[in-house]
Amino acid sequence: MQIISTSTYNHAAYLAAIACAERRALHSYFDQHVLEDEEAGFIAIDEGDYGALPAMLIDKVVHTIPGGLWDEN
User: Fold this and answer.
1) From which domain of life does this come (predicted)?
2) DSSP string for residues in 1-64
3) Model pTM score
4) Per-residue pLDDT tens over the stretch 5-44
5) Which of 19, 34, 36, 69 could lock onto 63 through a cystine, CB 3.0 to 4.6 A?
């Protein structure tokens, strides 16, 4: 998980979290989510770290990038 700190909306921090999630998605089977957090700013998380996301996290998702790997031969 990457934390990008901001006390108010910061577009640069949002874009940095998006970029992090996009990079991670290329090498993951799981979706990458960018969440807005009042204390931490924006964070990028891997859905695989949490399994089914709890409702408290789902409510904070501002952007999702699908995982780039497929588990099919």
Assistant:
1) Bacteria
2) -EEE--SS--HHHHHHHHHHHHHHHTT-SS-EEEEEETTTEEEEEEGGGTSSPPHHHHTTEEEE
3) 0.78
4) 545 678 888 999 999 999 999 999 999 999 997 876 899 9
5) 34
